């Protein structure tokens, strides 16, 4: 039997359309991260399929939080890059990821909360929580005995980063943590506050724009002053003595980071957006500098984080089509927080959380028309390959990430 752990998927030459090849040729000869990518990167269904097969399938993708598989037998289903997978906690306490594709005839398996075994719904082949075949009804005792020695749900690479579960469909993927090293300083002190993760309620409707439009909106320091009047003024990108601070972006980095000051310490999200009277109390274990700033972290292609003085808020992203992006967080659905246990145990926590949701919804309502307009503008015959200004350093960095990923992908085609 082939050792699937060491084999990459077959090359995809035949499936690569002329559109994709045209875009890749253009990127290889003329691409500069300082200019916008061709609009077709955001509007072509073929280009999206290329991204899914050749970028997402080789990227580390966050599929949830460690709290979701706290106990042996806990299991979550996810679809990174469109592939059904399961993440389990084994009886030995390990967290494992595996393809949710039955070894018999390929039915998709799903989880039902806590379970002792994984069972295919079609003919009841069963697997243990590591994915090894246990039983196969009516297949013959001897044959099943043999199959048990070799058959298992294909293991998927998994890495846990600060309690976030990341998977990578590429069995030869480099480790995740070194590519996120630049984020480490921003974690300082937070985890001393007994942080607990509250996973977001998962979105059940896609947003009608490309995933790159979504994350560009998140990472853009230029627009808040104009789009988020009244909700973001407390955390400005431009101040008399500085404003937004960017981090360096080196090849191999998988995080794009910006930090903005807050006008006063210990602010956070309240019913009206960012403000000085936040719904959640400040975290006592972080530094004075951390208590007066917001840090926005984009980990493409699957998640964003905001380090605030009182919480870390995160969004899980999943693109299922060129104009279909699922986003799950306090802006779009609910939850997506890391909070001190002392905050979660407050008697009026539910009310405070509702206030955060209300403020987040106000900010999000301002972003929605901008994302809709950006996606629509990509289809215009007059769409520019525009330039970026100094406040858009993170967009240049995201472009660099994309161009690097597309170049690696092009080599595999
Ligand atoms: S396809 Fe799963 S048991 Fe037959
Ligand atoms: Fe925004």
Report what the structure shows.
The structure is a single chain. This protein is an alpha+beta fold. The protein has two domains: 61-161, Rieske [2Fe-2S] iron-sulphur domain (Rieske Iron-sulfur Protein); 179-408, Naphthalene 1,2-dioxygenase Alpha Subunit, Chain A, domain 1, CATH 3.90.380. It has ten helices and 21 strands. Strands 10, 13, 14, 17, 18, 19, 20 and 21 form an eight-stranded antiparallel sheet that branches. It has a six-stranded antiparallel sheet with strand order 1-9-8-4-3-2, with no helix packed on it. Strand 5 (118-119) and strand 6 form a beta hairpin. The model has no long low-confidence stretch (mean pLDDT 94). Residues 102, 104-105, 107, 120, 122-123, 125 line the site of FE2/S2 (inorganic) cluster (FES).
The CATH architecture of the largest domain: Alpha-Beta Complex
Shape: globular
In CATH terms, the superfamily of the largest domain is Naphthalene 1,2-dioxygenase Alpha Subunit, Chain A, domain 1
Overall mean pLDDT score? 94
Question: According to CATH, what is the class of the largest domain?
Answer: Alpha Beta
Largest sheet descriptor: 8 strands, antiparallel
Calculate the terminal CA-CA distance, rounded to whole Å: 26 Å
What's the number of structural domains? 2
The tally of beta strands, per DSSP, is: 21
